[in-house]
Fold this sequence. Notes:
There is one protein chain. By secondary structure, this protein is an alpha+beta fold. The chain is 31% helix and 26% strand. The chain has 7 helices and 16 strands. A hairpin with a 2-residue loop joins strand 7 (187-190) and strand 8. The longest helix is centred in the first third of the chain and has 25 residues, at 83-107.
Amino acid sequence: MFKKLLIIVLGFIFLPPFGYLFLKNIKKAYFTLILLGVALLGLLFISNVYYLIFLDLLIIAIYTLFIVDVIRYKSVNESKIKIYHYFIIFILIIASLYIVSPTFKRATTSFYLPSRSMENTLFKGDIVGAVKKYNLKNSDIAIFLRDNIYFSKRVVAKEGDEVIYYNKHLLVHFNKTPKIKLDANKSITFNNKRWYINPYKTIVNGIKYEPNYDGNSYQLMVVRLNSIAMEPIFMVNIESKEFEYNGKIYNAFYYKVPKNSYFMLGDNRDNSNDSRFLGSIKKENIYGKVEIIYFNYRKFNRFMKKVK
């Protein structure tokens, strides 16, 4: 019994291929080595949460079968395993880990969402998987780092795009036509440019404007005017309360996204600390794109749900 426990421990430390050598099973040693090697090397070409889930399940299956084989193992008078087999498998394991480890570290990670700023797309308590990706598309949800805090928000504008925000309305002038469905009927002309009104509400079901306090994000922007990223402007023919700042009337806020940056908002627009206050997010601060909800201990129907 002690010998079997020792083999299991060695198998977990040095991986099952090495453990199978202690079971005198060369075929399974090389088979599991090749299987793990091919699966891990796939990380070099596939950056996808579902592939990583498959890889996790494959590793669990291999370890489970290894433990079963150890338990069923009966010592007989097999011929000794030649020492070079240990050497070959050890070198191949080290080489595979050396090649794949940096890629695996960059591939994905999970995050816990502590706030409600992305409701109704992501909920407080969601454990999400993010693929490390730095070139985001419009409407992608991403994790980014700002002031040593991780945020999760949606990309609404990219470099060169211009954004206007007023009470419950997001207007975007796209510098380049984005790969999302745009409704020309829901647009206006301002300063000789076409601005799309709430362009993401038609493709994202989770966006909402429902303040949880006496006020909303627009009113908070008015109160914190001196510390927010957007600048006050005046627009005609819009339903928005007018305010005065430095002798000038304004009823909306404007921002142009600088190079190599993103303008990101929470889907819970009236309850989100985002680019309206923080400013644009630089590419180097983007951690990755959120692709899947692993689970939520409060909401069991969130298990393995794809993020849109």
